[in-house]
Amino acid sequence: MRALLPALLLLAPTTAALEPAARVTTDSREYCAELARRFATLPNAEAEPARSLAAEGVRLCDAGHPRTGVAKLRRAIRAARMGQ
Amino acid sequence: MVLWYATAGSLDRQTDAALRTDALGLIESWRGAGARGVAEAVAERLANDVEGTAIYVFLDPAGRRVAGNLDRWPRGVEPDLSWTFTTVQREGTEAEARVFAVEFGDGHRVAVGRDVAEKNRLRELLAEGIAWSAVTATLFALAGAALLRRAVEARLRPAAQTAQAIAAGDLSRRVPLSRREDEFDRLGESMNAMLDRIDRLMEGVRGVSDSIAHDLRTPIARARAKLEEALGGPGEPEALRAAMEQGIADLDHITRVFGALLRIAEAEAGARRAAFAPLDLAAVLRDVAEFYAAVAESRGQALDLGLPPRLEMVGDRDLLAQAVGNLLDNALKFTPPGGRVRLLARALPREGVEIVVEDTGPGLSPEDRARAGERFFRADSSRATPGSGLGLSLVLAVARLHGGDLTLEDAAPGLRAALRLGPG
């Protein structure tokens, strides 16, 4: 065990370097769904252009383009908030 | 560097400012509503992140994720108000992120960041553009400097060649002028004027040396001949005394010539300017006229005065008196008995003074008038009259010392000498 200790110490930085990078979780269909739920709770969710933007965002997410869909849904939320 | 600081550097500063503001907002949320407030604020900000570059992760003291869009704490980031560049995974690829981390009091911590991949690409483009611009500008500057240097060298070459020729002893060379009338032509004109002036001065020095040798040889030879004659004679006291008196008179004449030359040199060098003082020129002229009035009277000539009561100026009293005395002496010397000499003076409109001496003598030809100021010059018609040819040279030197000039004009009949003096 004593003989293994220096080797473990040498390996320690390498292990840290091999630690995977944190992953961004908002480019996903799950986050799309979360944004769509948040959008639906807004008072102006049915007003244009927020409604169309949100619909387009959901459609893009369903079509496999979550990053673009998330961006549309965010614009929809901003448009709804600006209409308040 | 300035361009880089204003463009690419500005992108970094914008990102850091946004992160700092964001973090301060979350600290306020923590103080207001604790962990729940921070989680809601993070969710709200992520929902409003239209650009899609925001990165948040909020962990509890046990290291569990409470809110945010990172699945874990970003690697290499310490939660101690530190700024870090790290990498995050985005749709399977790694992207660089700028992160600012804050730890709250009870072990909760939050990392606020921005995906700076797009900004990095923009910065690289800017850097590339600036680098190419710098290289191009440097090349143009070097080419321009080389062209300018060649052009300046080409324009200065005639002046340099002339200077080299003059240094080698050819004083007749002058700088050839182009017809562009630019700075180089003005430099050439100045050099030529300087060379002409030097040439004239050297010519004058040569002329003065010749004249001194010529004019002093006569009285020295005469004194020597008289002394030799007395030595070889019968030794009568009267003859010896006459020879010695003649020798002393000749030596006095030589001393006077040297004295006059020294005074002219002093005046021309401006050495006596320190002796300038305010004076009433009218009084000085009256004193000089009083002395020469007796000479005029003894020759049957009339000396008329036209002087104002006072004539204030700044100058050298002794030199002015001698200059006017020389003019009067010349006028009386060349005016026949029964003739008239006038001494006039007046203040000029622009703070100067004019002194005029007019006579009714034979006057001077235009050629002689032009040369009358030269040292030892004597007109052919005056060879029989005693004099050294230095009188008008001194007058001219005194006039120039006082910022003025001497003008000789035909008074029909006679000569009109106008001595104009500056304000002093």
How would you characterize the overall build of this protein?
The complex is a heterodimer of chains A (84) and B (424). Chain A is mainly α and 84 residues long. Chain A has a domain at 25-82. Chain A is 68% helix and 2% strand. In chain A, helix 2 runs antiparallel to helix 3 (50-62), helix 2 (29-40) packs parallel to helix 4 and helix 3 (50-62) runs antiparallel to helix 4. Chain A is elongated, with a radius of gyration of 22 Å. Residues 1-16 of chain A have low confidence and may be disordered. Chain B has 424 residues and is an alpha+beta fold. Chain B folds into 3 domains: 2-115, PAS domain (Beta-Lactamase), CATH 3.30.450; 183-269, Orthogonal Bundle (Helix Hairpins), CATH 1.10.287.130; 275-421, Heat Shock Protein 90, CATH 3.30.565.10. Chain B is built from 9 helices and 12 strands. Chain B has helices at 2-6, 8-47, 117-167, 183-232, 237-269, 281-298, 317-334, 366-371, 391-401, and strands spanning 54-59, 65-68, 83-90, 93-103, 109-115, 277-280, 302-306, 312-315, 340-347, 353-359, 405-410, 415-421. Chain B has a 5-stranded antiparallel beta sheet. In chain B, a hairpin with a 5-residue loop joins strand 9 and strand 10 (353-359). The longest helix of chain B is centred in the middle third of the chain and has 51 residues, at 117-167. At the A-B interface, strand 1, helix 2 and helix 4 of A face helix 2 and strand 3 of B.
